[in-house]
Design brief:
With 46 residues, the chain is mainly alpha-helical. It has one domain. The protein contains two helices and no strands. The longest helix has 17 residues. The protein starts with a helix and ends in a 9-residue tail after the last helix.
Length: 46
């Protein structure tokens, strides 16, 4: 399993290696949406 995560991490970092400032801003907005809509901590799990 750790091998799979190592490969995913490597591919993720490779994709971000040449990200522009605009890309980083878009990523930041996307993470904000995910954080507020998907990974909410204000509702109980289960």
């Amino acid at each position: 399993m750790s091998e799979a995560f190592r490969r995913i991490e490597a591919r993720f970092l490779q994709r971000l290696e040449h990200a522009s400032e605009e890309d980083w801003q878009e990523i930041d907005r996307a993470l904000d949406v995910l954080s507020s809509k998907v990974f909410r901590t204000d509702i109980p799990f289960g």
